[in-house]
């Protein structure tokens, strides 16, 4: 395919000025044809020519003045008169009204389409100039800072207050909780034994249901997927780079400058044209160290740093909501800073969206760890994730139960994500909440066989911090989505409701109830049964024994078979020690409960980069980055 | 849903067929000791007790208790409940074989049979004398066959796709085996090296111990759990006395006769290790289990010890590589298996198998009623209440009574009182007349030490208010209501 006129001229100019070698130009032109993009986009994805030089030649080619918006600050009041989204999409910015009355507009990519967009937004009385995309984006962020920051925090809460975790519990929920507590206390006062038996029955039945549901999920989830995985992989392999859409990659980070090279390396290794990636490294504006680290990496032009204004709550979903307003892709994915997605992930996701149709609004990829063998905790964490992502989530998908999205590697259709109001910044597991919200709004969440490898927590205190946030988020999600119970049943169906209760509610309730049962068991062992017999009539005793032995045995077994899909059979015997992991879960559950009451929106930060494997990954990524530069 | 409905319909149609296979020898007087014991223990289990007897094996008893409880309002007798449970399980086994035979697959050795060929194979498998013999043995034997079938299918599946559900199925099948029948435990033990043989080499190469730990965890956890329950409930887990029956290596001869097709299948499969290895592993496990049993003596009847081979044969039929000659060859080999197994059964079967053959053959002399000695006593004490008997050692009597109502069960204050005092007003005590402990098929029941103490007291000189009466195998001692404990 022949190059467009702009690309051809830009290439000649850069070659003529010695900014680009002949080999580089040949390679760039080949990529233009292969990816179906202009030379400008290809150069943005390489570190051959500085951005300043590209814009200088672009301005020269179009015979337009080049503006330096950092020195020549645009009129922010003027910018705010126009629609931020339209300007972001076209990368246009009104700089100032000139003495002649005409508007001076800066464009990052002057061309016929941009001129049309410019006339649509600003009218005909405009003069065009060239400015760098970074400058335009920065100016837009500065001008709309307050408005967009407010939208990032309160967008969902204002549009649909009941779907936001801004209020931990609503008045009806408080009344119900109060009524339940009253009934319980009255029961203890009037008929303590009968009340204890009733409580015991409810808890025991809940446990039995939880065990049964998880077994069903693993069975169904393990059997599912093989055929569809093959079909998806086949279609992904047939996708042509030239047909691929722009894909936004959000990388929210906070105080983790050390792991950034791992992610940039992984993104460069994706089997997707880098020129078609709209990568936003989302940083808190107070996070000087990470901002400095990101800038010092000298990243390609496709990497854009978005600075999130300081506001409460300081959470990852708020940062993502903020950055979403600058996203240009048709699809969007979130990665954590230390993530290593499998190279064909984006293509597989696109193939899934195509195969599953419009109703599939989100695709969750699997997560697992690259440092599984580091210590006991990383082994258990790996078993936990293998069970969750490899077996249970596919089971949920197959049974049509709402899927709580997990942390990273969830891919969205951009239009649906924006329609739904994106993430809830008050929910500390905003991804899980969004997964349920998607199902409630009639969309599907797909789960596919593509893995993103992460760093498993190597330290128990760090793990408890991370897990307590997840569990607190599950509590928030449970409270949010049970506010309209009739609507919930209507939208997700009875099976979906049951799954929601056991999967979201069961996860934190079992952590909270475990110590109670362990205490009863200890009393039983110590007293020989005489103390607990009054509250364990024979039928309940048998059911409790079943739960204790068969239920727990089953959960241990599920943990043991979880790594089989990946042939990590060496991890299977470690499953026997999962009881110790449950103890940690219980500690995290109680920490989560106390935080839900005292500090519901506090984001417990997980420290990354502690693993020795991460250090090795980092060294390799740095070496790779230097070689590429 | 439609598939489930169709399966349920087929199963409901197969249950009467299985019942008919079972009812013929039972109608002519054959009743296995295992069936009697299961019926008696199920009566006690329905009342929430083991009656002082062993917990093991729990599954056939629990299943029978459910059938008894559900069938009681319809007039199902306690003695027919295990037979019905056995027939239900038999139908399930046949359905599972059929499903496997017609299941579509891919590649050589992967293709399933058409419905008519599958039905013909199924009929020949069902007519193999081992199957009706197992049906007559009771639900424990049928659960053993079901467990062996699931193990066979899981091993074959695991070799092909190495999936978590395959691993779960294998774990669950081994669990089913060890909780269903003592021979199941022997088979699980014997299968240990053969699981490694059947496993996908690449999976096993990563961590053989990890693999085997995951496979055997459910079975080991179940056994430990049973031990824990025994400690909590204060019941016996394992048989306390020496075994009465013995079974030598002749079980292997019966297994070889029944496994002719599986042996023959190795020839066409030898170039296809992913299909051949599971069959070879299962053949090895089934034959090894027969030999292990000769040492461990878990199952006294060689016919029951050889039963798992039937599951191997069903799998081998499924795995026979597709060709124009596959159906006639498989049918021919299965047809040959019938007389071979019958001859092996006649020559090497245990006492009960020989009795079963006698009951099954129209011209032969039918065996006597094994419950004849219990019927008279049961008729005499039924409905009279406060019966003191060593329930663990009287399964026939308990089954004939049909309910635990009126029995003084272990753990009840009335029984303790009667045992401590030796005589209690209104209590009817039943003691066996014959000397020595009662022996059941396979695992003997434990002696009730307190009952033995009572026996000594009851054989002491007559007391006021004590009357004695003989009924069949039982001596019935009644204390007047006026008699009070001293």
Automatic annotation (TrEMBL), chain A:
Entries under Gene3D superfamilies matching the protein: Spore Coat Polysaccharide Biosynthesis Protein SpsA, Chain A
Domain Type II secretion system protein GspE N-terminal: 62-149
Residue ranges occupied by any Glycosyltransferase 2-like domain in the UniProt entry: 333-525
Chief place where the protein resides: membrane
InterPro entries: Glyco_trans_2-like, Glycosyltr_2/OpgH_subfam, Nucleotide-diphossugar_trans, T2SS_E_N_sf, T2SS_GspE_N
Regions crossing the membrane: 175-199, 205-224, 497-527, 539-559, 571-593
Protein name as annotated: Cellulose synthase/poly-beta-1,6-N-acetylglucosamine synthase-like glycosyltransferase
UniProtKB/TrEMBL annotation, chain B:
UniProt entry tagged with the keyword Nucleotide-binding: no
Keywords: Membrane, Transmembrane, Transmembrane helix
Record-annotated membrane-spanning stretches: 79-98, 110-128, 140-158, 170-195, 215-239, 251-270, 276-296, 303-321, 327-345
Protein name: 4-amino-4-deoxy-L-arabinose transferase-like glycosyltransferase
């Amino acid at each position: 395919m022949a190059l467009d006129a702009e690309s051809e001229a830009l290439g000649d100019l850069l070659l003529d000025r010695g900014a680009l070698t002949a080999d580089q130009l040949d390679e760039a032109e080949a990529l233009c044809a292969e990816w179906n993009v202009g030379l400008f986009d290809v150069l943005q994805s390489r570190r051959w020519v500085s951005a300043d030089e590209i814009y200088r030649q672009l301005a020269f080619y179009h015979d337009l003045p080049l503006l330096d918006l950092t020195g020549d600050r645009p009129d922010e009041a003027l910018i705010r008169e126009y629609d931020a989204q339209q300007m972001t999409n076209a990368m246009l910015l009104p700089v100032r009204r000139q003495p002649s009355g005409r508007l001076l507009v800066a464009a990052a990519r002057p061309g016929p389409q941009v001129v049309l967009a410019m006339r649509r937004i600003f009218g005909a009385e405009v003069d065009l100039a060239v400015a760098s995309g970074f400058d335009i984006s920065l100016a837009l962020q500065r001008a709309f800072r307050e408005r967009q920051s407010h939208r990032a925090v309160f967008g969902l809460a204002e549009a649909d207050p009941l779907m936001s975790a801004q209020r931990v519990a609503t008045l009806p929920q408080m009344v119900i909780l109060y009524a339940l507590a009253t009934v319980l206390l009255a029961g203890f006062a009037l008929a303590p034994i009968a009340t204890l038996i009733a409580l015991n029955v409810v808890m025991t039945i809940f446990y039995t249901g939880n065990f049964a549901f998880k077994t069903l999920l693993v069975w169904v989830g393990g059997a599912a997927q093989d055929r569809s995985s093959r079909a998806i992989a086949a279609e992904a392999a047939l996708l042509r780079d030239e047909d691929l859409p722009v894909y936004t990659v959000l990388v929210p980070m906070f105080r983790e400058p050390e792991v950034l090279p791992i992610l940039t390396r992984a993104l460069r290794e994706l089997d997707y044209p880098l020129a078609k990636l709209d990568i936003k490294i989302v940083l808190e504006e107070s996070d000087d160290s990470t901002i400095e680290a990101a800038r010092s990496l000298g990243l390609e032009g496709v990497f854009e740093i978005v600075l999130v204004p300081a506001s409460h709550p300081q959470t990852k979903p708020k940062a993502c909501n903020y950055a979403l307003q600058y996203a240009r892709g048709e699809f969007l994915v979130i990665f954590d800073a230390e993530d290593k997605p499998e190279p064909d992930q984006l293509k597989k996701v696109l193939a899934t969206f195509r195969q599953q149709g419009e109703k599939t609004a989100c695709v969750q990829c699997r997560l697992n760890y690259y440092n599984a063998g580091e210590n006991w905790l990383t082994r258990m964490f790996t078993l936990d994730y293998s069970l969750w992502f490899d077996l249970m989530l596919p089971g949920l998908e197959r049974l049509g139960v709402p899927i709580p999205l997990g942390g990273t590697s969830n891919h969205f259709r951009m239009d649906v994500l924006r329609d739904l109001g994106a993430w809830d910044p008050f929910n500390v597991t905003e991804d899980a909440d969004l997964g349920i919200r998607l199902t409630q709004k009639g969309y599907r969440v797909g789960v596919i066989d593509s893995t993103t490898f992460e760093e498993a927590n190597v330290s128990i205190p760090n793990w408890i911090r991370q897990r307590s946030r997840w569990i607190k988020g599950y509590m928030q999600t449970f409270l949010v989505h049970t506010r309209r119970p009739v609507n919930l049943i209507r939208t997700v169906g009875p099976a979906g409701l049951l799954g929601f209760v056991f999967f979201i509610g069961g996860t934190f309730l079992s952590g909270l109830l475990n110590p109670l049962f362990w205490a009863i068991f200890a009393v039983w062992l110590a007293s020989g049964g005489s103390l607990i017999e009054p509250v364990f009539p024979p039928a309940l005793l048998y059911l409790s024994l079943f739960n204790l032995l068969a239920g727990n045995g089953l959960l241990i077994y599920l943990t043991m078979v979880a790594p089989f899909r990946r042939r990590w059979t060496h991890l299977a015997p470690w499953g026997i020690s999962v009881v110790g992991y449950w103890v940690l879960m219980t500690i995290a559950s109680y920490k989560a409960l106390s935080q839900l009451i005292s500090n519901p929106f506090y984001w417990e930060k997980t420290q990354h980069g502690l693993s020795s494997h991460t250090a090795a990954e980092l060294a390799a990524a740095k070496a790779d980055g230097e070689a590429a530069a | 849903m439609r598939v489930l409905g169709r399966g349920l319909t087929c199963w409901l149609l197969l249950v009467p067929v299985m019942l008919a296979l079972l009812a013929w020898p039972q109608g002519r007087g054959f009743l296995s000791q295992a069936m009697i014991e299961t019926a008696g223990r199920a009566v006690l289990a329905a009342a929430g007790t083991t009656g002082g007897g062993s917990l093991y094996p729990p599954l056939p008893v629990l299943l029978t208790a459910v059938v008894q409880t559900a069938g009681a309002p319809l007039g199902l007798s306690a003695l027919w409940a295990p037979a019905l449970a056995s027939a239900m399980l038999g139908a399930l086994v046949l359905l599972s074989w059929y499903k496997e035979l017609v299941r579509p697959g891919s590649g050589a050795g992967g293709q399933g049979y058409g419905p008519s060929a599958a039905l013909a194979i199924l009929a020949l498998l069902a007519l193999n004398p081992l199957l009706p013999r197992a049906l007559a043995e009771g639900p424990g034997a049928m659960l053993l066959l079901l467990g062996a079938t699931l193990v066979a299918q899981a091993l074959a599946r695991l070799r092909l796709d190495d999936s978590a559900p395959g691993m779960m199925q294998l774990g669950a099948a081994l669990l089913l085996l060890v909780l269903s029948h003592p021979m199941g435990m022997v088979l699980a033990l014997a299968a240990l090296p053969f699981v490694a043989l059947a496993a996908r080499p690449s999976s096993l190469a990563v961590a053989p111990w990890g693999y085997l730990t995951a496979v055997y965890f459910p079975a080991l956890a179940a056994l430990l759990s049973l031990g824990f329950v025994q400690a909590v409930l204060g019941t016996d887990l394992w048989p306390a006395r020496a075994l009465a029956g013995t079974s030598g290596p002749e079980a292997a001869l019966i297994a070889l006769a029944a496994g002719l097709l599986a042996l023959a299948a190795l020839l066409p499969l030898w170039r296809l290790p992913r299909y051949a290895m599971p069959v070879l592993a299962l053949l090895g496990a089934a034959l090894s289990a027969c030999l292990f049993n000769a040492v461990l003596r878990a199952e006294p009847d060689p016919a029951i010890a050889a039963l798992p081979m039937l599951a191997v044969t069903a799998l081998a039929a499924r795995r026979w590589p597709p060709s124009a000659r596959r159906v006639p060859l498989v049918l021919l080999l299965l047809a040959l298996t019938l007389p071979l197994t019958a001859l092996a059964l006649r020559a090497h079967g245990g006492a009960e198998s020989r009795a079963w053959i006698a009951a099954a053959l129209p011209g032969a002399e039918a065996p006597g009623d094994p419950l004849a000695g219990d019927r008279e006593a049961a008729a005499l004490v039924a409905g009279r209440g406060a019966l003191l008997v060593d329930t663990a050692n009287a399964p026939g009597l308990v089954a004939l009574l049909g309910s635990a109502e009126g029995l003084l069960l272990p753990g009840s204050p009335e029984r303790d009182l009667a045992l401590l005092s030796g005589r209690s007003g209104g209590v009817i005590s039943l003691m066996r007349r014959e000397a020595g402990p009662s022996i059941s098929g396979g695992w003997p029941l434990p002696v009730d030490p307190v009952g033995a103490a009572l026996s000594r007291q009851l054989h002491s000189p007559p007391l006021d208010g004590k009357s004695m009466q003989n009924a069949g195998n039982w001596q019935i001692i009644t204390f007047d209501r006026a008699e009070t404990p001293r």
